[in-house]
Structure formats: structure tokens, C-alpha cells
Write a structure and sequence with these properties.
The protein has 1205 residues and is α+β, with helices and mostly antiparallel strands. It is built from 50 helices and 29 strands. Strands 21, 22, 23, 24, 25, 26, 27, 28 and 29 form a 9-stranded antiparallel beta sheet that branches. Strands 12, 13, 14, 15, 19 and 20 form a 6-stranded mixed beta sheet that branches. Strands 3-4-5-7-6 form a 5-stranded antiparallel beta sheet. The two termini are 50 Å apart.
Length: 1205
């Protein structure tokens, strides 16, 4: 049996007389025999094992020395031994033979004769040396003692005597002319117990050790073969008082194997296997406690010397909010679950005095974020790395220089010189070592609970923590946003009902058998030339990508595949909570079989048949008063999922599938190949190719662009995916991950050094008062891990020797390897949540034990399914584990016992001018990328930009994603993908050859190759906006962009689209055109000045104000982000999710947000100030009772996430 790389080989040997000996092979591949069974067979049952060994210790020592058997073959595991009572007392084979010599007559050893072995010995007979060789034949016999009478007459006479008279019920069965090993062994033992014959002293004492060695060798070889047999249980032994002796390890392992498939109620099932173990042993009573205790030991050992660790973590609601974290050591390539954390309310007693005072005064915020970080730190504390361990040493100087500081190089070492105090200090202390410096990579969702704490940790406290936010989750949000904008999310809801049918109704999977029955009946009753099949055949062939059959034989061959459909043989994936791509997995499983399924369960209806309005549609549905979710819910109530599902598959819905429309990549690509090159946009390239070329020709009906709304899916999807992909791959440190590849290492390291030199130069200038606005948005430069990587790279440039330079560069590569080698996303944690909740679903009580939740996590297959090596408690370890107290593990799950220091608690203080730090959002990450691209472009050749480093702010006038702009000086035209504060990403366009619009204007289409670039607008005269609309070059495409009117200037284009600039941007634009304004002037009045500058008539200005007011309306897309997957799951047949407290909690949050009033400011006139709507006064509520020592909830509308009591 093999588990976790270890092999436990057990054997049992049942003798003809019914005696059973058993044992196992240890790690040295030596057989160890259980002493309790040995004593039982020797009828020594009245004494406990350890007492028997203690009383006979000296005697055993003398006897083993006489047989030349080392004392180490006797394994006494009593008090004071290294592993007391772990495996019980055992003996090895030669010691076993010595202990059995008095009872050998009761044991038949004939079953182990095999092979041919020689044994040489020297015997003094009559004071003369004799050399005798015992040569054994293959049957175990030997003729070497035929001349024994001439060598030792006493021995010869003793042999004859033992042949005639039994000793202990046993006689010799062979003669000296041809005997065997076991008769020789019996004879030697007989002589040992007959000292008066002198045979032992003169003859046997010299031969006995050799025979014991030989017999031990053969016996061990025999049991080695027995150990290859399947594990067999051993009989349970009783003491003389009827109590159970130690349960054999093999019985425990067999018990664990029997209940391996039992996910729930394992303890009750174990108690029924009384043939293996008594029901009261620890393994049966508290298997979970044993497993968790052993797992914590494995975790502590595996991460004992780990300093650089990656952790994927996420919280979810079980009975209470529970944090689950997975630690990964990239050097050892091992992962494991940290102890789960029951997130409990923060108590006032835990807080520092100053923070407690603010809490009592109600002047704190971000409490839930602090609570989350405290739990995260406590989980890390189990491997000796709490968040405090990642603090930056005070003598390691990594931060940006202040105005009075200078960085100087002396003797190949960087120093920081303070011009005010005249002090100088090494930038890197002499005793500092990268190998001993703890570093943390945090992989989590970009949520409101973890982001503030992580931002405070990395930017304010400057800890060695690099937060990476889940790219897979962001991909799903990008796709969902695009689908909502073009009404595709409804299609996803509909098809999810179809995809989960194999598990319905109510999770019984009965509909799977029903579908199989329908297929058999359809195959028997219908024919390939029948009306039903012929009506579906065009759609089936189109979906499968096949040509329609033209002969009867081809139609029959296609018809015959109906009973072998994949969806009839397997249940397939299940669309389930937070499995973000489960819908696409299900679609891939059903690909080519949608219309097959409709034909089977559609009760003979035509392929075009959809939902009949007169039958089921209510007035609300017909009037369009319901959203997609509510409409689908009412349809299910009217028709049921079985009847509804086939009606949702029509020729006008199946081709709109989101997976075919969009081509998302799982975020598991090679970062080193993508980062810093155009390969980061490979997904965008695929989407453009699919949207402009492949999609229209293969997926859409002819002239599908009759509805202009269809074109919106392109712009929205481009913007979100470009921002997300660029933020992930183009921000340091991933920006320089090309150093991991040998072919690009030197180039990347040189570029890395040049870029950082520009950053240090700009930081010095900004400290001196120079205006460097783009630098302020480059928050990545404030992260200590990033600054450490660049510092070591700088040290390589000033190294005095080649070997030293190579060593520093290797450290840079090591750090880049560390930050790039991780579990990539929190999908693995989300899968853990789902599997663990499934395992705990049948618990008798809503309250779940901490041990139960931990066991459910470590037993799930989330990590193994990813192919990542993970810690696992083997059956061998559980079988030998000693019972512990559950309270020892519970302490590891109580974050209240882990109070963070004052500097961490200051996270809950309100931000001020002195107490502030940057905040990380998805939009801010994108702004960092754009600012970095512009900054490096400017620093590389600043002479080209006479207006200075802040001039690229004009890029905000480029327009929205999906619009087209042209640079007249360069003669380039491009499609905008995403816009930032200092630039925009765009795809180069080319003229569509031979295509002209009805008005005689040009048409454009994207280049087929990867043509994405960043652009920065510093002069408005060079840039114009080109109005376009989507069009088709033919009935089925490809898609192109038709120019609809003359190009216009960027400011005028923004006014026509709805001006939405900030006060600072308005002021900069007016200053550019030398228009006077007041510094404290309102945004509305600044907009009015801009309208006066570019528009002439009052009608144009009024129309522009109307569009401006529309731009200020809240985006529906923001509310769509809240629900994640719950809106989908509410429509599914997966009853396992009903009543899930996490879903109920999320629904309540969504309800509160959507029912809350949102004040929409109206557009002010040219002479009006901003109109701020008055807030309705709230009635005072009576004071609430709260528990002593717990902080009561504050006004979440103002404080965000407050305390939870």
C-alpha cells in the first residue's frame, strides 16, 4: 500500500496449527514482527508486553549475543524510547527465531524452503579444527552432514535420539544422509535445552548463529512475498481480563480503505466494522482530530524553514465567516492548507489604547478589513510567519529619497547621505540576507475587505508583501460585463437550465435516465427519413460543423449516433456557485448536441418552436416589466425545467453563445513569455479576429447588424479585457519577467536597470519640488518587493567582479521566479469552499466544528485536481497517530488570540493628510500601467515633448473604447481599446480595400496581426476623432468600421459625446486655450466655459448639457458586479444551493444597494453652480443592546465596512 510517497507493507503468516504471526516492513525494508502476537502464540498472555520485555531484558541480551544477533533487532517502545507506543513492541526476524526456539516444535516452517545457500563454520571436535560446509539444494535439503558420525559422535547419537523420541511433540523427519535446514534448526535448539549432552558446547554453539542467520534470511524472503499480497486483517487479541489489546496497524489501514469513499458519517460507519477494530478506539471516535493533528505536524515540518511563501486565500460563509488559505513553497513545490479561521468580531480589549479611544468615539473605519487581515495573519502564524514577520528591517533603506537625502556610491556599495544631519548609512546592512528575509505573495480577490488591509500593509507599513489579485475572477467579471451590455447574460441563464438537466430534478439525476429512455424510444420509433429528424437535421449538422447528408446511407449513419451522444453517457460539468467558468465548461461538453437534446425531449416540436406567449407569458413578461432573472423564474414556475429547457434552444439563441463570441484564456499562461511583449495582448488579438472576421462568417445570421446595438459588445469587452490584461502583465515586477528566459535575460535586465534609473532620477526631482504627476500614479514603485528587486539589480551594475555581478543577477532572477511561480488565482480556494460545504451539508447542526471544516478542506480534491503537490495525511500516519485534544487545534483557528500591533491597527483610523496611503482598484491598476508607459517614453526622449512630463493628460480627450482616432502627422488611424489619464491603448486600422460607404467615405478594419500600441496625446492639433459605425463587407462579413461623417477635433468630439471631465482637467483644458477662470470655480461652470469656447448656438449648448447630464447617471454595470454568480444560480435546478447563508447574505447586500436612493446631479447652466441634492434627514433610532466588550456597528453608509457585533 502506497500513500504520500511512503510504502506500508504488512504481512501475516498463518501456520497449519492455526497460529498467526504478523508484522510489517520498516523504512529500512526489514521485517518487524508484532511481539503481542508472538507472546500470544507462546501462551504468555498473563503479562503485558512491556512488563515481559522489562523482566527478561538481561536474559534476552545474553541469548541474542550467543546467537550473534544484535540487540537492535529487539524494538522495545516503552517509556523513554524515541517513538513510545507508536507501533507497539516488535522484533526482527533473527530475534524472532531466537525467541521461538523453545516452541519451534509447534510451528511448521516447511513453507519457506527455497533456493540454495552455503554456510561455512568451524567446529572443535575432540580439540581438532573441522571445516564443514552445508550446501543446500533447491528443495532445502543437504547431504553435508552425512559424515557427522566421524566428526562428532555425540551429535550423531543425539540426532538418532531426536529421530526416535519426540521433543515437545516434534521429531526429526530426515536422516543425516539427506536432511534439511529446519531439522538442523530443531536439532540445534534441542541441544541448547539439553546441556548435559555437551553437544551444545562442543558442536551446536558454533553452528547455531550461522543457521539462525540463514533461517532468518529465508524467513524474511518468504514474508517479503507475503507482503505483496493484498492486505488481510489480523484477529483481534484480548488480555486475560477480556480487554482489547493493541489494534493491529493493518486493521486500521483496512478500515480506512473500506470507508475511503464515505464522505459523510464516517464515524458511524466505522463503528460497524467490529471485525477490524473495537468501536471505542481513537481512530473511530475521533478520526478528524487525529487527521488534523497529523496535518498540522506535516504543515509545520514542510514550511519550517520557508521564508518565501505564496498564499491564496478567501473567506466564505459556512456557519460563520470562515477564511481558508493555501500556502505554497515554490522551492519545495509543496502546498498545504493553513488552519481555517473563524472570523469573529473585534473586541475592544484587543485594541491599542489610542485606537480604542477612537473606537469608543465612533471615529474608526475599515474594521472588517482589519478583522480579515488579523485572521489572515493568524493563519500564517501556524507556519511561523505572521504578517509582522514580513516587516521591513528599519536599517534596510528602500523608500524614495527625501529632499535632504542623497544616494552615493562608495567602494561598490550604496549609501544614503543626509545633508542636514551629515549622517551616512549603508542602504543594505552588512548582515542582511535575502535567503533569511521573509517575503509574501498574497493571491486573493480584489474585494473591499482585503484590499484596504493589503494596501496599508504594502504602502503605509512598507512590508515585504506583494498582493496579486485574482486574474481568473477578473476575467469572469469582464466577460459578464460584456454579456450584460449586449443582453447575452440572459442566454447564459437559459442554457444553464439545459446544462444542469442531467442532475435534476432536485439533484436526483433521474432526468439523465429519462433522457436515455427517450433516446432509445426515439431510435426505435423514428427513422432517418422521418419528418422530425429531417426538420432537425440542418441545425444538427450546422451545429456539429458537418455537411448535410445527401444519401440515405449518410442520413442513417447520422441518425444512428443518437444513442451514443456524450450527454447521454456522462452527467457532465455542473454550473455551480462561484465556479466562474463552469458555464463554458458545460457548453464545451454539450457542443454539437444542443439540437440533438431538443429533438429528444422536445416531444416532437419543430426546431423553431420557442416559448408560446399565449400559453405561459404573463402580462408583466409581455410588457417587458421584468428583468431576465424574474422572467426566467416565472417561466420555470409555469412550465417546469423539463419542458422549458428544449424551448430555449432555437436557431436564434444557440449561435449567440458567449464562449464562441468571446475567447477568454485561463490565467495560467507563461508570464515570462507574455510580460513586456505584445504577447500580453494575445487574448485581445484572438477576440478581434473572432469579432471582426471569424464570428460574422461562422456564427451570425446574414445581415445581423441591422440592429445597431449589436456593435456595443466589441467596445465594452475590449476595454475591460485590455485594462485587466495590461494591469496584470505590464506592471512591475511581471513587466520584467522576461529575465526568466535565457534568450531575453540580458536584454530584460538592461532595460530593467535603465527604467529604474529613470524612476530614481524622477523621484529625486520630485523630492526637490519638480512637477512629476505621472510618477504619483505609479504606485508599484512604493512596494518593498519591487524596490528590493530593483535595488539588487543596481548592486549588480556596480559589482567589482564578474562573479559578484552574476550572483546579484541570480538573486534578481530568483526573486522574479518567486513572484511569478504561484497558484495564479483563488479558483482553487473557491473550489475548496464548494467541496467542503458539500461534505458538511448533512451535518446534524448548523454550527460546524472547526476540526470538521479543516478536515473537509484537506480531504477535498481541489489542489490535487490542479496537479499541484499537496500535503496529505496518509492512512499509515492516521493508523499510528496518538489521540490528541481538539482544543489544541481550536486555538489555531481563533484569530481573537492574535492581536496585531498598533501600526497594523491604525488601518482603522480615518485617513488624513499625514496618515494616508494609495488605494488599489482595478481602474487605478490600469492608470499605473498607462502612467508607466508615458513616464518611460518621456524619460527616454524628453526633448520630443516640450510641454513637459504632465502634458500627456490630453489623452483623456481621445474618447471611449470602440471609437476611432487618427494622428494626422503620422498618418495613422486606430481603434481605441482603453483610455487612461496619460495615454490610451489602441489597435492599428487599415483601409478596407474595395469598400466604400453609401456616402462615399472610407471603411476600416483592424490589422490581422497583433497591432496593439500605447499612444500619448501631447498636442491637440495632431489628433482628430473619426465617427464610425459597424458594417459588413458581405452578407456574412467580415466586419468593418464605416466612417459616418467628417473628422472633428478631440474637444468637440467629447462635447458631442457628453463632456465628463474633472475640475482639474477642465482647468488644464481652459488654460491650454488661455481662457480665464477662477481657481475655486465649480465643475458645472467650468463645463460652461468649455461649451462657450467650442460651441456657437444656444441649441448646441443645451444639447451638450443634456448629454453631460446623461453621463452623470449611475452605471447599471456597477450593480451587476455585486451579484457575481448568484443571479445565475437562482435559476438552476441545483437544490444543494438553496438556503445557503452566503447566498442569502449576498442577496441582502444587493437588495440594500439597489433599493437605496442615488442622487443624480443635474447639469447646471453656464452661470449656475453645482446643484447638490439635499439629503433627507433620518429619524433617530432607539439605542441597541450590545454585548459587553464588542464594538457596535457604525453607520456603514459613511464608514464602508464597520464593526460587526
Amino acid at each position: 500500500m502506497e500513500e504520500s510517497g511512503e510504502v506500508f507493507r504488512s504481512f501475516s503468516w498463518t501456520l497449519p496449527h492455526g497460529h498467526c504471526l504478523a508484522g510489517y516492513f520498516n523504512s529500512n525494508k526489514e521485517a518487524e514482527w508484532y511481539s503481542d502476537r508472538l507472546l500470544h502464540n507462546l501462551k504468555i498472555d498473563g503479562t503485558k508486553d512491556h512488563v515481559f520485555f522489562q523482566r527478561n531484558n538481561e536474559k534476552f541480551k545474553a541469548e541474542l549475543e550467543g546467537a550473534e544477533v544484535p540487540l537492535s533487532q529487539l524494538h522495545y517502545r516503552g517509556a523513554g524510547s524515541e517513538d513510545p507506543h507508536k507501533a507497539g513492541h516488535t522484533v526482527e526476524t533473527r530475534a524472532l527465531l531466537e525467541m521461538l526456539r523453545q516452541a519451534c516444535a509447534k510451528i511448521a516452517l516447511s513453507g519457506i524452503q527455497r533456493g540454495r545457500v552455503s554456510c561455512n563454520f568451524v567446529s572443535d571436535v575432540d580439540s581438532s579444527p573441522i571445516a564443514l560446509s552445508l550446501d543446500f539444494f533447491e528443495d532445502g535439503s543437504t547431504r553435508s552432514l552425512a559424515d557427522l558420525e566421524n566428526l562428532h559422535k555425540g551429535a550423531s547419537k543425539g540426532w538418532d535420539k531426536l529421530s526416535q523420541h519426540a521433543w515437545c511433540g516434534r521429531k526429526l523427519s530426515t536422516t543425516l544422509q539427506q536432511t534439511n535446514l529446519w531439522d538442523i534448526y530443531l536439532f540445534l535448539i534441542w541441544s541448547k535445552h539439553n546441556p548435559s549432552s555437551k553437544i551444545w558446547e562442543q558442536f551446536s554453539v558454533h553452528l547455531y548463529p550461522k543457521v539462525v542467520f540463514l533461517a532468518g534470511y529465508l524467513l524474511e524472503a518468504y514474508v517479503d512475498e507475503l507482503a505483496n499480497l493484498p492486505l488481510a486483517p489480523l484477529p483481534l487479541l484480548k488480555t486475560k481480563h477480556g480487554n482489547s489489546r493493541r489494534v493491529p496497524k493493518v486493521n486500521k489501514i483496512i478500515l480506512l480503505q473500506r470507508v475511503k469513499a464515505q464522505k459523510r458519517h464516517r464515524g458511524e460507519v466505522m463503528q460497524t466494522h467490529t471485525d477490524l477494530t473495537p468501536p471505542q478506539i481513537a481512530l473511530v471516535r475521533a478520526e478528524a482530530n487525529l487527521e488534523v493533528a497529523e496535518y498540522v505536524k506535516l504543515l509545520t515540518t514542510a514550511f519550517a524553514d520557508t521564508q518565501h511563501v505564496q498564499v491564496s486565500w478567501d473567506a466564505s460563509t459556512y456557519d460563520v465567516e470562515t477564511l481558508v488559505a493555501i500556502a505554497y513553497d515554490y522551492k519545495k513545490n509543496v502546498s498545504g492548507y493553513l488552519p481555517i479561521q473563524n472570523i469573529s468580531p473585534v473586541q475592544t480589549a484587543e485594541l491599542h489604547e489610542t485606537v480604542r479611544t477612537l473606537a469608543v468615539q465612533g471615529r474608526i473605519t475599515r474594521v472588517e478589513s482589519y478583522n480579515t487581515m488579523r485572521s489572515f495573519s493568524h493563519a500564517l502564524n501556524s507556519i511561523g510567519l505572521p504578517l509582522a514577520a514580513f516587516a521591513k528591517p528599519p536599517d534596510l533603506l528602500l523608500g524614495p529619497l527625501r529632499a535632504e537625502e542623497e544616494r552615493v556610491l562608495m567602494n561598490g556599495t550604496y549609501f544614503i547621505y543626509n545633508t542636514t544631519t551629515q549622517s551616512i548609512q549603508r542602504q543594505v546592512p552588512t548582515a542582511w540576507s535575502l535567503a533569511k528575509q521573509p517575503l509574501l505573495i498574497s493571491v486573493s480577490d480584489q474585494g473591499p475587505l482585503n484590499c484596504p488591509g493589503l494596501d496599508h500593509l504594502q504602502f503605509k507599513l512598507r512590508g515585504f508583501v506583494l498582493p496579486l489579485y485574482d486574474q481568473s475572477h477578473r476575467t469572469w467579471n469582464d466577460l459578464k460585463s460584456a454579456m450584460r451590455s449586449v443582453k447575452l447574460f440572459r442566454i447564459l441563464l437559459q442554457f444553464s437550465i439545459l446544462y444542469n438537466m442531467n442532475y435534476g430534478p432536485g439533484g436526483t439525476k433521474a432526468w439523465m435516465a429519462k433522457k436515455q429512455q427517450y433516446a432509445e424510444e426515439f431510435r426505435a420509433k423514428q427513422t432517418a427519413d422521418g419528418k422530425i429528424f429531417l426538420s432537425y437535421m440542418p441545425y444538427i449538422c450546422h451545429e456539429m460543423g458537418l455537411s448535410e447528408p445527401t444519401t440515405a446511407e449518410e442520413r442513417e449513419a447520422l441518425f444512428g449516433t443518437i444513442t451514443s451522444l456524450q450527454t447521454l453517457q456522462q452527467h457532465g460539468p455542473l454550473v455551480k456557485l462561484m465556479r466562474w467558468f463552469s458555464y463554458f465548461q458545460s457548453h464545451q461538453f454539450y457542443a454539437g448536441e444542443h439540437f440533438w437534446t431538443k429533438m429528444l425531449i422536445g416531444e416532437g416540436g419543430p426546431p423553431q418552436q420557442g416559448i408560446q406567449p399565449e400559453a405561459v407569458l404573463t402580462p408583466d413578461i409581455l410588457a417587458g416589466n421584468l428583468d431576465d432573472r424574474e422572467e426566467l423564474r416565472q417561466l420555470k414556475l409555469k412550465m417546469g425545467s423539463w419542458r422549458l429547457a428544449p424551448l430555449l434552444v432555437t436557431p436564434w439563441t444557440w449561435w449567440k453563445n458567449a464562449q464562441q463570441l468571446k475567447l477568454p484564456h485561463e490565467i495560467a499562461g507563461d508570464i515570462a513569455k507574455r510580460a513586456g511583449t505584445k504577447l500580453w495582448a494575445e487574448e485581445i488579438h484572438a477576440v478581434i479576429g473572432n469579432g471582426f472576421f471569424d464570428g460574422p462568417q461562422k456564427l451570425y445570421p446574414a445581415r445581423f447588424l441591422s440592429n445597431e446595438e449589436e456593435g456595443q459588445c466589441i467596445s465594452l469587452h475590449f476595454r475591460r479585457r485590455v485594462q485587466s490584461s495590461a494591469s496584470y502583465y505590464l506592471r512591475p515586477p511581471f513587466r520584467y519577467a522576461g529575465a526568466l528566459l535565457a534568450e531575453s535575460r540580458e536584454t530584460t535586465l538592461r532595460q530593467m536597470h535603465a527604467d529604474w534609473a529613470a524612476v530614481l532620477k524622477a523621484e529625486k526631482a520630485m523630492a526637490g519640488g519638480a512637477g512629476m504627476e505621472p510618477l504619483k500614479e505609479m504606485h508599484w514603485r512604493l512596494n518593498s518587493v519591487n524596490r528590493l528587486i530593483h535595488l539588487i539589480r543596481d548592486m549588480a551594475e556596480v559589482a567589482s567582479t564578474t562573479a559578484e555581478r552574476r550572483a546579484y543577477n541570480n538573486q534578481v532572477v530568483e526573486l522574479l521566479t518567486f513572484v511569478s511561480t504561484h497558484l495564479a488565482d483563488t479558483v482553487i480556494v473557491e473550489n475548496t469552499h464548494q467541496m467542503a460545504k458539500d461534505a458538511l451539508r448533512d451535518a446534524r447542526h448548523f454550527q460546524k466544528s472547526r476540526t470538521g471544516k479543516q478536515v473537509a478542506c484537506i480531504r477535498c480534491s481541489a489542489i490535487p485536481s490542479r496537479g499541484v503537490p499537496c500535503l496529505k495525511v496518509s492512512d499509515d500516519q492516521k493508523a499510528t497517530a496518538s489521540a490528541g485534544k481538539s482544543s489544541s487545534f481550536d486555538k489555531l483557528t481563533h484569530p481573537n488570540t492574535h492581536a496585531l500591533k498598533k501600526e497594523f491597527q491604525r488601518l482603522m483610523e480615518t485617513k488624513t493628510k499625514q496618515h494616508t496611503w494609495p488605494s488599489t482598484t482595478q481602474q487605478m491598476e490600469w492608470q499605473q500601467v498607462v502612467a508607466t508607459e508615458w513616464f518611460l517614453c518621456y524619460m527616454q526622449d524628453g526633448d520630443k515633448f516640450a510641454a513637459g512630463p504632465n502634458s500627456a493628460w490630453l489623452s483623456v480627450l481621445a474618447g471611449a473604447a470602440g471609437e476611432v482616432v487618427a494622428c494626422q502627422r503620422a498618418g495613422e488611424i486606430m481603434l481605441i481599446l482603453a483610455v487612461g489619464s496619460y495615454g490610451f491603448a489602441a489597435w492599428d486600422l487599415e483601409l478596407a480595400a474595395g469598400v466604400r460607404t453609401a456616402a462615399g467615405m472610407s471603411a476600416f478594419r483592424p490589422y490581422r496581426h497583433n497591432a496593439i500600441r500605447f499612444h500619448h496625446i501631447t498636442e491637440l492639433e495632431d489628433w482628430v476623432s473619426v465617427p464610425v459605425k459597424p458594417g459588413l463587407s458581405g452578407p456574412h462579413g467580415p466586419l468593418h468600421l464605416e466612417q459616418t461623417s467628417e473628422a472633428m477635433s478631440l474637444p468637440l468630439a467629447r462635447i458631442h459625446a457628453g463632456l465628463n471631465l474633472t475640475c482639474k482637467q477642465c482647468q488644464d483644458l481652459l488654460a491650454l486655450f488661455k481662457v480665464n477662470f477662477r481657481k475655486n470655480q465649480s465643475r458645472a461652470s467650468l463645463h460652461g466655459l468649455i461649451l462657450d469656447l467650442f460651441l456657437e448656438t444656444e441649441h448646441e449648448k443645451e444639447e451638450a448639457r443634456r448629454k453631460m447630464a446623461a453621463c452623470l447617471l449611475p452605471q447599471e454595470e456597477e450593480h451587476a458586479e455585486d451579484s457575481d454568480m448568484e443571479e445565475l444560480l437562482e435559476q438552476l435546478e441545483d437544490l444543494e444551493n438553496q438556503g445557503d447563508p452566503e447566498i442569502q447574505k449576498e442577496k441582502e447586500k444587493i437588495k440594500q444597494r439597489r433599493t437605496g436612493r442615488i442622487a443624480v446631479p443635474r447639469a447646471a447652466g453656464p452661470d449656475e453652480g453645482e446643484q447638490v441634492p439635499k439629503r433627507k434627514a433620518k429619524a433617530k433610532a432607539p439605542p441597541k443592546q450590545r454585548k459587553k466588550g464588542l464594538l457596535e456597528p457604525k453607520m456603514k453608509a459613511h464608514l464602508g465596512h464597520g464593526f460587526t457585533g
